[in-house]
From TrEMBL:
SUPFAM superfamilies: Cell wall binding repeat (SSF69360). It holds the Pfam family WG_beta_rep. This is WG repeat-containing protein. It comes from Leptospira neocaledonica. PANTHER family: DUF3298 DOMAIN-CONTAINING PROTEIN, GLR2918 PROTEIN. It comes from the Bacteria.
Amino acid sequence: MDRKFMPLVILAFLPLLVFCSKKLQLTAFEENDVYGYKDQNGKVLISPQYALAHDFNENGVGFSFGKDGWVCIDPQNKVLLNVFTFDNGPDYFSEGLARFVEGSKFGFFDASCKKVIPANYDFAFPIQEGFSIVCNDCKSISDGEHSTIEGGKYGLIDKTGKIVVQIEYDSLSEIDPETKTLRGSKGGLKKEIRLP
């Protein structure tokens, strides 16, 4: 093939490559008070079975509520992970990550429902300033509408899951974004902790 035609051939096939690389976009629909998913042509790909459903996102995954609570599913209706329920819906993304629950432990996932930080903690707070306060041996105490986390030992992890502050404190404050510090309490003693 003549080299001067090569750019034209590449340009001719570029739209086909873009079309083939797009994730399948599914839209939630309701039928008889339950939700399923249809493709862009209206073909039912996941039959109605969920109490609530969100359209699939640009990463090709959808969030649905059923017998197992909020889950993240793929276009074949395979459950990728169980999403932590926050404010009656799936956990919100903070700095690109949201929380999932696996065997009553907390971890973090990205917008593709890929597990980024393994579920190793009894509770994890949302990512803030690049970090999450986590705890072990703590419990969620409900007052009816809301819950608080009590007891246990607290520490801090970064967005990669690396432990930055050991899980040994009785409490940790929120991070001061200006000074990049937080306060910890252990055995009645208070300590200011400077972050890297």
